[in-house]
Amino acid sequence: MAKKLTLKKIMKLQAIYCFTKQQELITSGDVWKFEGSMGRAAMESLESGACFLPDVVTFDYYGSKLPARSMLKDGSKGTLGNSQEFWAKVESGEIELGSNDGDVI
Questions:
Q1: Domains identified in the chain, total number
Q2: For 20-34, how does the pLDDT look when each residue is reduced to its tens digit (9 = 90+)?
C-alpha cells in the first residue's frame, strides 16, 4: 500500500496547481456565500478531491450547516482521504492538470 500524502504535501500541490485560493474559501466557508457558479466550482473540487472540507462545521448563505470533513466517511467527497487519492494520482501522472486548472475563482 502506498504511503498517504500528508496535509502539508497536498497543500503544496494545491499551490502548484492554483487551488490555494479555492481551498481557502472552502476552509473559511466563504465560498458558500458567493454566487452559484463559485459554489458549483467548489463542489466540483470537493468531488474530485482537489480540495477538502475544513475540520470544523461551516454554514452557507442561508445558515445551512456544512459538515466538517471528520464527520464524513473517509474517502468520500470532501474528506482528506479523497484528496489524498486525487493528489496521489496527480503525482503519479494518472491525472494530468495544467498549472492553472484551479483558477476558477
A1: 1
A2: 999 999 999 999 998
